[in-house]
Amino acid sequence: MNTTAQPSSPSPKLQLTLNKQTLEIHMELNALLTSFGAPTDLAQVAATAWERDLLIEDDTESKSTLHYLPARLIPAFIDQILDQLSVESSAAAIQFRDGFRALGASTNKLITLTQTNRPEVLDLMQQWMEMAPASYALHELIAAQFKRSTAFAPNPATTQGGQ
Questions:
Q1: CB 18 within 8 A of CB 32
Q2: Which residues form the domain of 20?
């Protein structure tokens, strides 16, 4: 994977990309930092800590390099920069981090339900696939990431005293 230590330029919208080889969703760091009012130079933390996990692309439109971090690492990235944020940015970042963790927990529950092979659950999944194929496909991509991330990251509930 191509890596560089230069942070990308800020963007007004969150930017996601899909790594087609690993089917992993990545989030552009400066757009993330901008979304909760944090200084974009904090992207350097991820460039240093997760250099091998970064996906780097040149953006011809903005003539800058974009740095994408796997979505599974976003909560850890936010934890690492919290002490460097203002009160307002910190509150927004915590809310974002907790949302990612809640998404992971919900996805894990869905994964568990689908593995039960109970007919009523399988029927609901089939209906979901037919009625909202894009939503179902996004769930499958996210589920695949959270399946992988549980092997690499501790459960937040157990590392924070079960809170």
A1: no
A2: 16-155
Residue 100 placed within a domain: yes
Q: What are the CA-CA distances from residue 114 to residues 7, 106, 117, 118 (Å)?
A: 40, 12, 6, 8
Number of domains in the chain: 1
Quick: pLDDT tens for 104-128: 777 777 777 777 778 887 787 777 7
3-state helix/strand/coil string of 68-79: EEEHHHHHHHHH
pTM for the model: 0.63
Which of 72, 84, 93 lies closest to 154 in space, CA to CA?
72
Residue 92 near residue 37 (C-beta atoms within 8 A): yes
Examine residue 89 and state whether it is found in any structural domain, yes or no.
yes
Residue 14: other Cβ atoms inside 10 A: 12
In a domain, 5, yes or no: no
Reported as half-sphere exposure (CB side, CA atoms, 13 A), residue 101 has a value of 20
**9 located within any domain:** no
Q: Which of 7, 139, 152 is nearest to 70 (CA)?
A: 152
